[in-house]
Write a structure and sequence with these properties.
229 residues; Metallo-beta-lactamase, Chain A; 7-stranded mixed beta sheet; 6-stranded mixed beta sheet; 6 helices; binds zinc ion
Length: 229
């Protein structure tokens, strides 16, 4: 039997705005509830653990309930809050780009750290894109495949270019339904055509142009918002 939703995506860290009772801060993080595996998964951790934990708790989720954390890339505004998360939850599985595995193991020697190079399923219907970028900076995005076979892409900063992740996503699903997160310097806006939900936030430099060109699809991403797919 199909359930009414596959994933709930809760915004727990962003720079731009917040619903009453939630806090903003520089960085990005989403808390994903996978209704297919009944698991809470964190994607990125913002800069500060106290802000992150405040926002997670505000959604009535405890850090101890989170099973896995995926770090898109090793910048402080995405990996900074991990310290406090790990302090509370030593059992959490940490997935990082393979390039950064050594540095995470050094910081978290007792933790379960996995380095990702190729695309892999990290939880039921949730995939890492695999690491992209250069030897100086590697990054992974998250691909969520709903029961209807729609794809949701969650992006940290998209330093290797958002189009890289969109192209990879198209190999998985004919329909990319949503892209949420930081788009950084992304400017090939035609890549967003046909995507129903464009949730550009955090470091997206062309946010105004994206909103103007896709007024129907553009969504204001605020901390405290949540979306069902
Ligand atoms: Zn970054
Ligand atoms: Zn960033």
């Amino acid at each position: 039997m199909k359930s009414d939703f596959s994933f709930e995506i809760k915004i727990v860290y962003d720079d731009i705005c917040a619903q009453p009772g939630f806090l903003t801060g520089f960085g990005f993080s989403t808390l994903i509830y996978n209704n297919l595996s009944k698991t809470h998964i964190l994607f990125d951790t913002g800069t500060k653990g106290d802000i992150l934990i405040h926002n997670i708790n505000k959604f009535n989720v405890k850090v101890s309930e989170i099973k896995k954390v995926i770090i898109s890339h090793n910048h402080y505004d995405h990996a900074g809050g991990l310290k406090e998360i790990y302090q509370i939850n030593h059992d959490i599985e940490i997935y990082v780009p393979l390039r950064d595995m050594k540095s995470f193991i050094k910081t978290y020697p007792e933790a379960q750290v996995q380095g990702i190079s190729e695309m892999v399923e990290v939880d039921k219907n949730i995939f890492s894109s695999g690491q992209f970028g250069s030897r100086f900076l590697a990054e992974q995005s998250l691909f969520l495949k709903t029961e209807k076979n729609d794809l949701i892409i969650i992006s940290g900063c998209a330093h290797p270019g958002l189009e890289t992740f969109i192209l990879k996503g198209r190999l998985m699903s004919k329909k990319i339904k949503a892209v949420i997160g930081g788009f950084h310097g992304f400017s090939n806006l035609t890549f967003l055509e046909g995507i129903e939900f464009v949730g550009a936030c955090h470091c997206t430099q062309k946010i105004k142009e994206i909103r103007q060109r896709f007024p129907e699809q553009f969504k204001d991403i605020c901390v405290g918002n949540s979306y069902l797919f």
